[in-house]
Design a protein that fits this description.
The complex is a heterodimer of chains A (149) and B (183).
Chain A lengths: L7 H24 L5 H27 L20 H25 L3 H25 L13
Helix pairs in contact in A: 1-2, 1-3, 3-4
Chain B lengths: L1 H12 L20 H23 L10 H22 L4 H24 L22 H16 L7 H20 L2
Helix pairs in contact in B: 3-4, 3-5, 4-6, 5-6
Classes of the chains: A mainly alpha (149), B mainly alpha (183).
């Protein structure tokens, strides 16, 4: 077995994706306190999905001999989070950032395994994005080109 | 919202120590299997060669059709089906209107990439959708159509060149989400 390690572009893309996952998890932790019960339950489900994804990326990076980027202690929110709508808005931003990072991985790696991982993550983040865009009143709820810069 | 989005983006990007990442020589299980690497080394040059040949049309026998042409046709067909569904039942309009708009935007973006790559957007090369009997314009038919469009685009994601994969992946992800919310 001599599998090829991800090249430097792919590693950078994976680190960006990991950073976006860290930020998303921080955002969910903040937002969930402001959401109504049913939305909070959905947010916990979504956060669990991000946690799984984050762990998977960290494993890929460690196996490639890289040091996974750590989470920041805190992040700047685009708008003050004061209620359920602004909390949903924060999650819209977090999912959009994640979508951008995962789409970028596709563009920065030709490795079929990383392409599949990135694509699955992009599909999942688009579905979550639609939920929170709907809750925040963003039109259309389903992003037309998710992850496009 | 855009400035604010950029602010979070910057904060997020600030996390990444771009200068410190480097490729590793001594990794073990992170990369693709030998078979995947072989398949890639076979497929990618072939794909690059074919997309290069599309531009000139002089390098040999007729190049294979641009796979994005079929995706653009599917996008137009989905948009037409969505419009028909809304016409058949105006109550569906709020639900399927955004889908129709999204698929028209997909068609335009895919056409633009086909043209950019040197291909025409030829009515003659592709079969006219109107020749086939249209499926009944129901929500279920629309969901199935957009689900098929998701799968068709998803199949290309592993092999497309870097400059095209993002567009096709975004189109596929959008279709996948519509297929699940229409269920």
């Amino acid at each position: 077995m001599s599998p090829r390690a991800p090249d430097s572009q792919a590693v950078a893309a994976l680190q960006d994706a990991l950073a976006a996952e860290h930020a998303a998890l921080w955002s969910y932790a903040l937002a969930v306190a402001f959401l109504e019960a049913d939305q909070a339950a959905a947010a916990r489900t979504d956060a669990a999905a991000h946690r799984e994804l984050r762990a998977a990326v960290e494993i890929v990076l460690v196996q490639a001999g890289q040091r996974p980027v750590p989470a920041q202690p805190a992040y700047a929110t685009p708008q003050p989070v004061l209620d359920a709508v602004s909390a949903a808005g924060l999650l819209v931003t977090a999912e959009a950032d994640a979508a951008g990072a995962w789409r970028s991985l596709l563009e920065r790696s030709a490795d079929p395994r990383l392409r599949r991982t990135g694509f699955d993550a992009l599909v999942a983040t688009t579905a979550r994005s639609a939920r929170w865009r709907g809750a925040a009143g963003t039109v259309p709820a389903v992003p037309v080109f998710p992850g496009r810069p | 919202m855009d400035d604010a989005t950029a602010a979070v983006r910057n904060a997020v990007h600030g996390v990444v120590p771009n200068g410190s990442v480097r490729p590793s020589a001594g990794s073990s299980r992170a990369g693709p299997s030998r078979r995947q690497v072989l398949r890639l080394t076979v497929l990618v040059p072939a794909l690059l060669a074919s997309s290069g040949a599309c531009g000139t049309g002089l390098l040999g026998p007729a190049p294979p059709p641009d796979p994005l042409v079929a995706l653009a046709d599917a996008a137009r067909a989905d948009a037409a089906l969505a419009a028909a569904a809304a016409a058949a039942d105006p109550a569906l309009a709020p639900q399927v209107g955004p889908l129709r708009d999204a698929r028209l935007e997909h068609a335009d973006a895919l056409d633009a990439e086909v043209v950019r790559a040197g291909g025409a957007v030829p009515a003659a090369v592709t079969p006219t959708p109107s020749a086939a009997p249209a499926p009944a314009a129901t929500l279920v038919a629309l969901r199935d159509a957009v689900g098929a469009s998701h799968r068709a685009a998803a199949q290309l994601v592993v092999d497309l060149p870097a400059h095209r994969v993002g567009l096709v992946a975004s189109v596929a992800a959008c279709c996948a989400t519509y297929a699940s919310v229409l269920a």
